[in-house]
Write a structure and sequence with these properties.
The chain crosses the membrane at residues 24-42, 105-126, 132-148, 160-177. By secondary structure, the chain is mainly α. The protein contains seven helices and two strands.
Amino acid sequence: ALVGMAFLFLACTAYSLYRFPLRTVVGLLVLGVAAAAGFWIVKDEQWVALLMVRGDSYRIELFEIMTGEWRRCGWILGCGVDFYTTKTLTGGVPIQHPHNIFVSLGLYTGAASLVMFLVVMAMTLWNALRNADAWGLYLACALLMLNFDGGQLVGNPDELWVLVLLPATMVLGRVVQTHRLMRPTEV
């Protein structure tokens, strides 16, 4: 969620710098001073120390293990949707899922489905950009966030449906609506 928030903040900041350069610079300076003061106040708190120790939450090791499992099963078809790894992270921590939507798609259903997903998402984002659809920014944030946390896209209803399928459907619905409105009415 923090990655998506950072991406959204950067996108909004870039737009603000373009539209209102002086106000944005002043706002960023005030925000930076407030953030530095806030961090200085809580720097010695136990929860901050635990957050810093936790670091990347084993994401790099997890990525290496899960791509290794994917390679072992076969790049093209993956390991199947019922695959479960017996490997563990450092310290014996069991792995529940890949924590990356792209590795997850590749691991469970192979490179073919991953490539199809990437093509559909790229086309959806392109149409959102072309039509100035705000759902595209929502989808871009979601895809960026799910690069660091995400399981199977197709399965039980969960947050991935709201993060990926809903905005993609909204963007593509707008594309269909635009094409229908531009087409002359048929009698």
